[in-house]
Design brief:
By secondary structure, this protein is mainly α. It contains three helices and no strands. Helix 2 packs antiparallel against helix 3. It is elongated and about 60 Å long. The N and C termini lie far apart (66 Å).
Length: 70
């Protein structure tokens, strides 16, 4: 039984250690999210103002002015 367990662990270990890398589009989106989040934090935005800012920032629209809530 111990021998069988050892064989199973040896076979399964490389598959478990393998991690999936994000695609270039996913990496770009993650980086955009990080930078937009950092900018919103530096502007001390919260609530609807933050939501509006994040929405426009993630779309790649101009982030020069803080968008007004609707």
């Amino acid at each position: 039984m111990l021998r069988l367990l050892s064989v199973v662990l040896l076979v399964a270990t490389p598959a478990l250690a393998e991690t999936r890398q994000p695609s270039p589009a996913q990496r770009a989106q993650q980086e955009r999210m990080r930078s937009c989040n950092a900018e919103a934090k530096s502007r001390s935005l919260s609530g609807e103002q933050r939501q509006g800012f994040m929405r426009s920032c993630l779309r790649g629209q101009s982030t020069g002015a803080t968008p007004q809530p609707m």
